[in-house]
Every structure is written in structure tokens, then in C-alpha cells.
Specification:
Blueprint lengths: L12 E4 L2 E4 L3 E2 L16 H12 L4 E3 L8 H10 L7 E6 L1 E2 L7 E2 L3 H15 L4 E6 L8 H13 L3 E7 L3 H10 L2 E5 L10 H10 L2 E2 L16 H10 L3 H12 L12 H9 L7 H7 L3
Parallel strand pairs: 3-4, 4-5, 5-8, 8-9, 9-10, 10-11
Antiparallel strand pairs: 1-2, 6-7
Helix pairs in contact: 1-2, 3-4, 4-5, 7-8
């Protein structure tokens, strides 16, 4: 498949280590069932959604073993394997799901080794392009978790390493242990609490992957008057404004909007073509 000229490619490209992807990715969390738990009632629409996401020019897919758990990774393989050469898959380990509404940190080295092997099997890969430590575990020294992943990278099971839900201090510590090519923290037009981490990523040339780029759902930041006002003036949707702002905010930004809706998938991809003026950006960033 050729993704040149597709809607999601209009924002240009970004590097993940030695890999190049379009700068508007796809988050595959929501293809699992309700509450990101179990399988959806119908699998076929989610498989078609994943195929369409690539067709639209999303060449970076973000997932995790905790999404389902395991459902998102299974679906990606079922929909897209054998993988197109342009596709880069990033997955994560370090959160466990003992029940529908629990997301518990688990950074034990033995667990991370098993988690990685599980992801490799589900994704039908010998090596993960990007493997991110999903969240620091307060009960395990951060260096122990990252050290285990660095060993797995040296063993050839991981191409590039990333971290998620980290502070500036944790990012610095991770970089002392292994090369880090991405950081995935919550960030959107209504939540800029990771500005310092983003700035560090800019200085180091590390991709910053904002999770919940629309604010967690199609409400929250999208209801802000300044977002809706600019969307109305440009004849686009608030979601497209929120994504365009992220793409404008920093050259290292790699948004990964996710959805279960084909309509919203198409809409989000077109955000890569939205251009904001300096006045628009200033208005959106006004507290």
C-alpha cells in the first residue's frame, strides 16, 4: 500500500529512532470492548476500522497489552498482518487489568519479560519496533524496570524503547539507562501539565506522544468556547482543532487519536490538513 498523499500524512513525518512515520498516528485502545475490557460485541467493524486507519495514512499504530487486555494487539495482527512495510507498531507493558475498572502498575522485571513475550506472540513479530514502559510502578525501583527492558532490547526483542506517564526526573533516569525515542504522557488543549517533559523531548529530539489528545472523550476540552469558536470560523470540528493545535504546538508531537467510529476516524485524519494562524494558537493556549 502507498500512503503518500493520504489525509493523515498531510502533517509531515517524524522520526522514532531510525524509523519514519507520519506525524498523525492512530491509537488502537478503543477497538477493545466497553471500558477497554474484553472484545467488542462485533469484531468485524473494528478490523475494518484498523484497515481503514492505515489506508488514511496513519503509519504509526499505538497499542498496549492492557487494552482488552490483549484484544487490541490481537486485532492489529488479525487486520493487518503481514504488515505493510510503512507500518510501525508501538506497544506497551507495565499495567495489569485484574478487573474491568482497574489499571494496576506492574514493573517487576520478570513480569515485563513475560509481557513482552506475550506482545510478540500476539502481534506475530520477532521484534517490537517501539516498546514503551506503560507506567512507573511505585513498588519497584524505576531503574530495575527500565534495566530489564534495556536487557530485552540488547537481546534483540525490542528495536526502540519509550516511556509513558513519566516525570521529568524519570525521563532523565530512563535516558541514563538506555536510549529513549518516545515519551507518552497525557496532553491536550485542556491539559498542559507535561509542558516541561515536552520541552525536554524537544531539546533531545524525542517524539512526544500525547495520550487522550482530545481530552479523553469528545467532551471536556472540546467544549471550551475558544475551541468551538475557532472550529466554527474555520468550518471544521472541535476535534480537528484540538488535533491541529497539537501538531502546531511542537515539531516532536505525534498525536494518536483513537476511536471506534469510522466517521470519527475519517474526521480525525483530516485534522492533519487544518492550518491554524498564530492568533488561533494564542487564543487556544489562553488560560
Amino acid at each position: 500500500m502507498n500512503v503518500t498523499g493520504k489525509p493523515a500524512g498531510a502533517a509531515g513525518t517524524i522520526k522514532l529512532g531510525d524509523l519514519t512515520v507520519n506525524r498523525l498516528g492512530f491509537g488502537a485502545m478503543r477497538v477493545a470492548g466497553a471500558d477497554v475490557w474484553g472484545r467488542p460485541r462485533k469484531s468485524a467493524p473494528m478490523l475494518e476500522l484498523l484497515k481503514r486507519a492505515f489506508d488514511l495514512g496513519h503509519t504509526f499504530f499505538d497499542t498496549a497489552d492492557s487494552y482488552g487486555p490483549n484484544v487490541s494487539e490481537d486485532f492489529i495482527a488479525e487486520a493487518l498482518y503481514p504488515y505493510p512495510k510503512e507500518l510501525v507498531i508501538g506497544t506497551k507493558g507495565g499495567l495489569v487489568r485484574p478487573s474491568r475498572h482497574r489499571w494496576d502498575e506492574c514493573g517487576r522485571p520478570d513480569y515485563l519479560r513475560r509481557a513482552l513475550d506475550g506482545s510478540l506472540k500476539r502481534l506475530r513479530l520477532d521484534r517490537i519496533d517501539l516498546y514503551q514502559f506503560h507506567a512507573p510502578d511505585p513498588n519497584v525501583p524505576f531503574a530495575e524496570s527500565m534495566g530489564a527492558l534495556a536487557e530485552l532490547q540488547r537481546a534483540g526483542k525490542i528495536r526502540h524503547l519509550g516511556v509513558s506517564n513519566v516525570s521529568l526526573t524519570e525521563l532523565d533516569e530512563a535516558r541514563r539507562i538506555a536510549p529513549i525515542v518516545s515519551v507518552q504522557n497525557e496532553y491536550n488543549v485542556g491539559d498542559r501539565s507535561s509542558d516541561a517533559v515536552l520541552a525536554a523531548c524537544e531539546r533531545a529530539g524525542i517524539a512526544f506522544i500525547p495520550w487522550f489528545p482530545l481530552g479523553g472523550n469528545r467532551h471536556g476540552p472540546l467544549r471550551l468556547a475558544r475551541v468551538q469558536r475557532i472550529a466554527a470560523r474555520l468550518s471544521v470540528t472541535p476535534a480537528q482543532i484540538a488535533l491541529a493545535w497539537l501538531l502546531t504546538r511542537s515539531p516532536v508531537m505525534l498525536p494518536i487519536p483513537g476511536t471506534r467510529s469510522m466517521e470519527h476516524l475519517e474526521e480525525n485524519a483530516k485534522a492533519a490538513r487544518v492550518r491554524l494562524s498564530p492568533d488561533d494558537v494564542a487564543a487556544l493556549e489562553k488560560a
